[in-house]
Design a protein that fits this description.
Number of domains: 3
Number of strands: 25
Number of helices: 17
Oligomer: single chain
CATH topology of the largest domain: TIM Barrel
Shape: globular
CATH architecture of the largest domain: Alpha-Beta Barrel
Strand order of the largest sheet: 13-12-10-5-2-1-17-16
Largest sheet: 8 strands, parallel
Distance between the termini: 23 Å
Length: 556
């Protein structure tokens, strides 16, 4: 495919509320990010994705925007943001922001005017239905009906997510024009692009008819009627042409539910976005990404299959966005490594495996430390509205309180949103004030200060492998090389990265036992490994427990 600048980026996602609190009010802020730019530069990061910083009542932690052109005061000012962009640019770091255009906050001026006056043009900026009964049986992503009654009227408004997040009416051209103007204004401001939130929900089934219930609440998932609906591609093409095409920007879409057969429309040379996130590997432990209490057994071979299917499908068409953590996911250590979540060698192999895939890597704050899930003992300790909904839904579906709490601890979005641990002091050096959300550990044993002093730490390893990917003689192969998965033991993920010049074979042992793999080539040289010694004899590679080995094939 045609090469683009964003294919060479290393993206680091920041949840600003929890990264670093510079003014000690318990909430992270933009100046806190500025203070930590050197840390990010030393990590070999080249781009920051900053989660929503816009004015918001914070019902969904910023994904409920009340003003697209103002910042939430707890994060700082426009001047603070401009300084952050400029200082990061001087260090070779670009910045992208979250673009939330499926919905606004119910405190946005548009919605306030729509509620205040049913004859206002803003009533058509959102989705309202008149009637004495709830219009249909669709369930919102955060539980309960997608419909909320307007006080004093026989009218309901639509919300895919929380009731304080009314959906915008994309069928209204005036809405789309207003959104495009906003997007272009931010690109003019100097950001490098957007992570586009929940974009596959902007088109609804216009019949608004009830469908067969799929839960004891008598409701049905709105993903069946509000995600990837017929006609959405017209909206996405218009967004691309009116905004993204005008700038040499990067766009990465949160686009769950996209069939691989449709990838061409989304990420080809003329696709809607630079790349999209795929959630099949991220949700391999649950029967549905939206129902945490429906657990599935899985093996490393299942993870390998999901990664392979995605990588091979994308390679034919465009570019991948690779991740194992984000603000909506639990910690990858706990999810994928289970009982070995604190085993440094296991964490390093998990990191190696996904950082060497074909595509742009995304690292979520704290992932580079090997952070693990917390263990909360009461539902009152959770902040995330999705976690609270899942807890009560689990019990409604027949789980005990203990079972429900167990499932929420495993999957809660709060796991990744806890304050970042900079040192082992109280509140982890994040703040001198009680944080907005409780730490994973009040005096964290996993923290930056200790790992910076340890050459064998997870943090030191992330620096090492990112440097290897970005700056070694195999850079071209690791970034642009084709990928092909290799036959291997079911507890090993193995693949090949290849250009005309180089061929690298990568082996990742996810077992706590030693393993042997027969090599396809007699002449191979070790170019990267975790742990000291690599043994190859008679074309047999002997892998230690949780070891990564990357070989250069000498004769192709």
């Amino acid at each position: 495919m045609e090469r683009k600048w964003w294919q060479e980026e290393i993206v680091y996602q920041i949840y600003p509320k929890s990264f670093y609190d510079s003014n000690h009010d318990g909430i992270g802020d933009l100046n806190g990010i500025r203070k930590k730019l050197k840390y990010l530069k030393d990590l070999n990061v080249t781009m920051l994705w900053i989660c929503p910083i816009f004015k918001s009542p914070m019902d969904d932690n910023g994904y409920d925007i009340s003003d697209y052109f103002a910042l939430a005061p707890e994060f700082g000012t426009m001047e603070d943001l401009k300084c952050l962009i400029d200082e990061a640019k001087e260090m070779g770091i670009k910045i992208i922001l979250d673009l939330v255009i499926n919905h606004t906050s119910d405190e946005h001026a548009w919605f306030q005017q729509a509620i205040a006056n049913k004859d206002s043009k803003y009533r058509n900026y959102y989705i309202f239905k008149e009637g004495k009964e709830v219009p249909n049986n669709w369930r919102s992503i955060f539980g309960g009906s997608v419909w909320e009654k307007v006080e004093g009227e026989d009218t309901y408004y639509f919300h895919t997510f929380g009731k304080k997040q009314p959906d915008l009416n994309w069928e209204n051209k005036e809405v789309r024009e207003a959104l495009y103007a906003m997007v272009n204004q931010w690109l003019e401001f100097g950001i490098a692009g957007f992570r586009v939130d929940a974009i596959t929900f902007i088109k609804k089934d216009q019949s608004y008819a009830s469908i067969e219930a799929d839960g004891v609440d008598g409701l049905a998932k709105c993903t069946k009627t509000c995600r990837n609906q017929e006609g959405i591609k017209d909206f996405l093409l218009e967004l691309k042409e009116r905004c993204f095409d005008k700038y040499d920007c990067m766009s990465v879409a949160e686009a769950p539910g996209i069939a691989y057969d449709d990838l061409d429309d989304f990420i080809s040379k003329d696709g809607f976005f630079s790349m999209i996130f795929d959630f099949k590997a991220a949700d391999l432990d649950v029967a549905s990404g939206s129902e945490w209490f429906k657990r599935l057994p899985w093996k490393i071979s299942d993870l390998r299959t999901k990664l392979m299917e995605y990588q091979m499908a994308v390679q034919k068409i465009g570019w991948a966005a690779n991740f194992i953590e984000n603000h909506d996911q639990p910690r990858s250590t706990t999810k994928y490594l289970l009982a070995h979540e604190r085993n440094k060698e296991a964490v390093k192999t998990l990191a190696s495996m996904y950082l060497c895939l074909r595509g742009t890597p995304y690292i979520y704050q704290g992932q580079e430390l090997g952070m693990v899930n917390f263990q909360r003992s009461r539902i009152e300790e959770f902040n995330d509205i999705s976690s609270i909904d899942q807890y009560y839904r689990a019990m409604q579906e027949g789980c005990s309180k203990e079972e429900a709490l167990h499932y929420i601890n495993l999957r809660s979005r709060d796991n990744s949103r806890t304050p970042f641990p900079w040192n082992a002091t109280r509140y982890g050096g994040f703040s001198e004030h009680t944080p907005w959300l409780s730490m994973s550990e009040e005096y964290p044993t996993i923290n930056v200060e200790e790992q910076m002093q340890d050459e064998d730490s997870v943090l030191s390893f992330y620096k090492k492998i990112l440097h290897f990917r970005q700056n070694s003689k195999y850079r071209e192969c690791l970034i642009y090389g084709d990928i092909a998965f290799l036959e291997s033991d079911e507890e090993i993920i193995a693949y090949e990265r290849k250009t005309k010049k180089d061929c690298l074979q990568c082996f990742f042992n996810f077992s706590d036992q030693g393993k042997e793999e027969t090599l396809l080539h007699a002449s191979c040289k070790v170019v990267f490994q975790t742990q000291d010694k690599v043994e190859i004899k008679d074309k047999v590679l002997k892998l230690k427990p949780f070891q990564t080995v990357i070989l250069k094939v000498e004769e192709q």
